Amino acid sequence: MKSLEELLAIKEKAQAQLAARDSDGNDGIRVVVGMATCGIAAGARPVLKSLVDEIAKRNVQHVSVTQTGCIGMCQYEPIVEVFEPGKEKVTYVQMTAEKAAKVVSEHLVNGKPVVEYTVGAVTK
Amino acid sequence: MRELSLNILDIAQNSIVAGATLTEIVINENTKDHTLLIGIYDNGSGMTEEQVKSVIDPFYTTRTTRKVGMGIPLFKMSAEQTGGTFTIQSQKGVGTKIEAMFKTDSIDFTPLGDVSSTIVTIVSMNCDKEFLYKRVLDDKEFIFETVEIKKILGGVPLSEPSVMSWIEEYLNEQTKELG
Question: Hey, what CATH topology would domain B4-178 get?
């Protein structure tokens, strides 16, 4: 069974990591998932979960995952936007949990956007 | 929506947008009566009587990007198609109470789905807000409160991946314990 003592141990470990991250002073990458009715119905929840799990598994630093409302292209949901300081926004469309994991490994870790999943490639 | 838990995720967003500092999500299942009640109660900005009437209309939304809001109508429909009921009560400046009752023995009953994942998503994406999640199955229940968890966590946010995993597993275990 999960215990509150276990949560306390998680807290102490996370605190040390957070302190290390803060001292880097690096501007992070922001990953935003559309979570309005359209996004949720299209499967945004497993996409968000996959992003978070994969980021945690690979211990990727300087990346935050947040949610937003309707982005305005409901037919292309689930939509994931990646904002990287100093670079143009990348918009991924019709995402799945598997595609999200690939975006973490190729884009967020290796710095190469997965072009085939972007809005430009899909809507061609 | 393929799971009722996705409706919960969607409807709870309305409470966040309404500025609720505390949102309660209650799921109460009675196996003898074949009923499932989903309640979402918030202390957000609330609505006028006229607004309440219009949110159950699919062509009403607070959003400015488009003119159609489907969240409430979809949730209402999923309850009523089972022979259940849907109510919404709201008071300006006080908050909003939404209750949907489902008949679980109806062929049109949508499965509840992964509620733990919905709760983790809601609480981790809105770290500055408080949530209470209560799950009742006949005479057994458990309650999960972000206030309690935050006391243990100190300043560590609920969005920390290791914390999110813990919450999800914890909720899954608690749900299983109910039977």
Answer: Heat Shock Protein 90 (3.30.565)
